[in-house]
């Protein structure tokens, strides 16, 4: 079976599982007659785990399906060299830099291709409910300014792109061997895994040969400073041989000596090479002295996996129907959170949430150096009621003339102070307007210390150039379903621009995101003395330091009316926050140390004003017919000139190619050869499921060179 049909098979499986969960009934898998996926049940109602069943040959059908999954998951992970250098000279036009600037730029690029811990955490679980439980506990214990948590599905696993973009993978529940093999390979190449009540334990530590099935067993166990904690043991109790006979309520069996487990174990990779893992017991179930938490470490790569046979992911509320059990688990819940926090920080090198509790949302302020702009917007704002309330879907805003507002600010209601006498404490309008040099962009602003998302506060038709600037967001939005982390120090905005459909840009509106990316980089690199600060553009819409570290990105949402495009540009970039990766001011500081310069760090207000300045210059130039100014800056800043990539063609075949440029609509163009004929292919992003720096892209248009 070729990769195209194999992919179709896996998609059919995923669709059936989704439908079964949504419709709450068994669903037959398309293309596999007789193979059925059952819906999941609530933890308190489940009598048995969801399973596949078929007619008399159900087992054979399942085996065939596992073989198909095995086909699509076949892979070899290559370790990623975070210190690899891009060829900066290929990306930078020679006629736009002095030799001194070029030298400094090259030196800066060298120092900024640093190793930075990736900010993503992936979850792979055997049920949807389990995934929700794991995500909930991780959100409680991990640093919210450092990590974004995603679900990893069987459809994402074949794509190698996640491998070097994650700080941790959490596996929970029983998984197929072929999937376990993929995670083992990831660990061997330096990955970190937390395995919660999973058969991954037996897969990697084969001396745990037996598994006794025990339902709802509440046990005592100890780990570190936490002694005799009451927790739920996994249904499958993996034990090193010899096998114990069963759990006991008292300590009559405690006199049995603990097993002397091997201090190391050999694990083979996909090529058959052996790797020696050190094994250490971290926590023990007290009744039998059976290991409940273990650590396996591969010294040669730094790969680590922590195994827990205790349900650290489950909140006591999941057992609320069993009153006595619920009360016991609730009494031990602080210990549960403390244990998983310590495992993550001490053994898996993760950063834990030590911030104070969220204090709530804040007032908004309508800012302008020309009060007439405010009244002009109110006059033309459709949907504004007599009491100055505007409903925006996920958010309702109301304009007030005073700070004396006797209402509560919530995630769905934002009061906005309009009078010029009232100014926010954490944003300086004076400094912002000092640097702002535009006719329209950014002249009228709503500022708030904390918003859900600035995109939620933008109406369908506010005003050309209208901006929303939050200090912090709780639900920042990235491209597709991605989440953008927005800690304090991240410079964020949503900007609305109107583009006439019959204008030069209107006829190729999809390049707007690239124009904004140039403005975000040029806001820094256009300042005299800052030309060599190594901010770069990764196609299609990410901002990087050097080649290895993402610090920003943007999305553009567009509505169309009779004569214009209404574009909401949402952008964020790490300005003065070192988490989750690094930031602009850190780069400036390192540059100063390296080159003995005294470049000033950029304030929040100055940077945002400079972005709007640069964007208006670019938009004006394009409408005057000078689109080459944009292209020259774009190719100066981007990462990909002459990069070697592999194109996944529409028929499922792989083709080597060389990156050339972007076309009039912003699609990436690559040069390749098909059947000996030189061909230029325009390609598009696969909703962030690929990584161009890893060299995998997907084509949409082909044309002869």
TrEMBL record:
Ranges annotated as biased composition (Basic and acidic residues): 39-54, 84-96
Lineage: Eukaryota, Metazoa, Ecdysozoa, Arthropoda, Hexapoda
Family named by the database record: Belongs to the biotin--protein ligase family.
Keywords: Ligase
Annotated spans, Disordered: 38-57, 84-113
GO cellular component: cytoplasm
Domain BPL/LPL catalytic: 430-623
SUPFAM superfamilies given in the database record: Class II aaRS and biotin synthetases
Molecular function terms from GO: biotin--[biotin carboxyl-carrier protein] ligase activity
UniProt-listed PROSITE patterns: BPL_LPL_CATALYTIC
Protein name: Biotin--protein ligase
Domain of life of the source: Eukaryota
